[in-house]
């Protein structure tokens, strides 16, 4: 069991990994395409020609932005470093696998949070009022961690081909967007749709966003949204650690 | 310094490393030799905590690699086989990243990075991205990265593989210097000359088991009897012309030279001189050689087959 000093030490090293990831991967092609362009176009395709209230749209756009951006950096790192043969050096460094993965998560989280400011500012510019800014901020941060950890699960496939990982992540992410109340509120879905929506972590962020913006009713209590995101985060992180532990030797 | 006991690793039911045991003393350059697929890299990866051993134990300065992996890794520097520096970062960025990974304080890290870049003749290129470096420069940087934490033990897995003569020489010189400074070096290589020049002791691994551990000269004495006579004539002569020479175990061509393996070098020399006289050939070079490490390696790994 690690002491507090050792944990702080590992946290500093995770930050070093995050800093390295930020410098290398933020302008990486797949990150820009799958993290910014794809959700942007998806949103435009949904909005154009439909008369929907701006606060509803901004809440959906924000949820989707955090989801896509946070799940776009972490899946790229492991396959790229497998291909460029940087992984063995990291594996030989005095860090645990959780530290290495947490570093990747942090880089992904910062990216998600930074880009999520765009729809928030866009909403404010168009007159949307944020009634619960702290809840919104907490939701965004928690969801960014949760989705980044989810991205790590995709990257646990022992491959050096980023395209394979991105293909898998796209196959999972797109259906999730459609069942998570981004385009249709969860309350308007049939009961089977609502049951399905409850299995998606994005549902709870979208619900929090709706709550945080004026005049929008949320489907779940705020405490349920926050607890669900925290539980998904723990589950994803635990699963990612196990899967990466297993796949690391195959990557070397 | 390094204590390995009954270390084993299986892949798909096959033993890549099979119950090997050895010790590396403090301040020693320990060579680890073996043909491709013998289990060298698997062993180094277990010693450096990159992969988990199937069974057995590894202790690095008293820290068990399974129980205290972080402490064991903290005191070691590693140059993995085929590993790269981050090509999108500069040389300086790579060194600082390593310093942060090993918890080296900022001032020490900057000082050490400057020293290492100067030593490896990379200081002028410190702000250039690694992707613009030549292979030799990249390898020098990878070694510099492994030294950022001023390790007590250095694991070098094929450090001169594929390098030009000058870069390889610089790296060998660096290994000697580090050893003179009291560092322990675990060197994996398939260059016999390199192992012979640098190592205090050598372990030869084949099919996952260690077939011999000893000092290079003692290993050579083990296969005593296999001496060589090398000769070069002014005109090329076919190997088949020498099959009638007595006392020769085998003859091989080596470039413009003929190499005679024998237990009786004096007798062979007389016959070669006679041959040159009777065929009106001039001897350009004639020398006798004792077994090399390569001979030992070939003999021991063949014997095991």
Describe this structure in words.
The complex is a heterodimer of chains A (252) and B (305). Chain A is 77% helix and 0% strand. Chain A has 252 residues and is mostly helical. Chain A has one domain (4-251). In chain A, helix 6 (133-154) runs parallel beside helix 10 (222-251). The radius of gyration of chain A is 18 Å and the shape is globular. The model of chain B has no long low-confidence stretch (mean pLDDT 89). Chain B has ten helices and 14 strands. Chain B has a six-stranded mixed β-sheet, with helices on both faces. Chain B folds into two domains: 2-217, P-loop containing nucleotide triphosphate hydrolases (Rossmann fold), CATH 3.40.50.300; 223-304, Alpha-Beta Plaits. With 305 residues, chain B is an alpha/beta fold. The interface between A and B is medium-sized, with 27 and 32 residues.
List strands and helices in order, with pairings.
The complex is a heterodimer of chains A (252) and B (305).
Chain A: H1 4-25, H2 29-47, H3 54-83, H4 87-92, H5 97-125, H6 133-154, H7 162-179, H8 191-197, H9 201-212, H10 222-251
Chain B: E1 2-11, E2 14-24, E3 29-33, H1 40-47, E4 55-60, E5 63-64, H2 69-74, E6 76-79, H3 91-101, H4 106-119, H5 135-146, E7 153-157, H6 165-180, E8 184-189, H7 192-198, E9 201-206, E10 209-214, H8 216-222, E11 227-233, E12 248-254, E13 257-262, H9 265-278, E14 283-289, H10 293-304
Parallel strand pairs in B: 3-8, 3-9, 6-7, 7-8
Antiparallel strand pairs in B: 1-2, 1-4, 4-5, 9-10, 11-13, 11-14, 12-13
